[in-house]
Amino acid sequence: MIKKVLLVDDDREMLLDLKESVSRKIDTVTVLTAFNGREALKCLRSQDVAMVITDLKMPEMDGMELLAAIMQHYTDIPVILMTGFGTPETERLAKQGGALEVIAKPFSADALARRIQLLLSQQSEGGTLNNVSPAMFLQLIEMEQRTCTVRLEHLRTGSKGILSFDQGELIGARAGDVQGLDAAYEILAWEPVRIDLQNSCQTRGNRIQKNMCQLILEAARRKDEKTSAATTARAPHDLTMPASAPSESPARIRSRIERAVGATCGLEQVAEDPSWSERLQQMSRQGERLKLGKLTLACVNWGEPHDHIIRPGAPPVVVIVSPKCPREKLMQLLGE
Amino acid sequence: MRGIFQDLLAIDGVIGVVFFTPSGQPVFEEFVVGGGGASAGDWFSLVNVLDKAQEAELVFEKGRLYVRRGPEGVLVVVMGLVGPTGMVRLTSDILLSGLREPKPVRGLKRFFRR
Asked: Which of the four, A3, A40, A189, A336, has the lowest number of CB atoms within 10 Å?
């Protein structure tokens, strides 16, 4: 995978020299450049950058300010600071601020290239998985209580995202410029993905506060909502609507049941009930996701002495029956 | 775990069995035909739509599902279009009652296998 490295320095000549050397020595990176911190932030907003190497003294926004902004919005991106005026105090402050390393100028472009290569290879030191569904893998990380950084690439859209785990707990997520919970929901809905695993986590503090199972379910719900909205916008008829038989009045259904299984069959009520519509649509959508097709009939028991048999339609028809009713025969009858 | 659900998987017409803990952690997932093609999370999302339903049978265009929720977890049995639901209900009854945790045994008895 080609990774993007951002070089930031106001010395244009040096910047272009460095760009050329690094590009020549590492063929798996694309080098981006910016002449000050502000430009660098603009670049971070629009590109998936894997690493930032910045000078310390620059006009408009210096290296320390840029480092602070990165640590606030892109905590997963490693930062290397370059300085010609390095003192132990500067180095201490930079590392305290979140910099991975401080390099004293002058340095050889070869040494920098080797350093970049090493740090980028660490981003997939725990292994790489291709063409997988993230849900199961991320639940495993939670169960094994691992501390790691997971970098994901959505294979259909090429979008990239990062999830940070501390002892199995998801503490940070970022997808482009979106962060926290919203980013986690977006990333968890991606499928299939490529996953790079790094056995450490730079992110500090928990910005998520939810367990993986809750996140996966909510992500699936949001994805369904999005798909449903897109489908509705595309076609005048909702394609996820449950398959329903031609509309039949409750009275007609009742007489059909009584004819087939007798008047004392345990039939309690037959009525139209629009309150079931949304639930039936959700079930139907899930059925289609699971390649079972649309929902045609449902029988649900809530722990009460009677069952609800629901036939989808507009509105759905609900048949309430007692336990003595031959449920299977009725289901067959209503499914016809 | 496979041994527990063997009886369900052996019923003609049953395509697969998925079992979750009440919180949605997948515990068992096996399909007799194909791989199911869906993740455990997808199955649980469907179960979640049913909210707190104790038992449900869902008939779709290409297959049917039997869902059973108990204190031990949530069982989903995937069947073909002509599913033997009666048999599946009965077998699920027996299996789920067998999964209930036995009462703790005090004293030396706890060292002996029951």
From this structure: A336
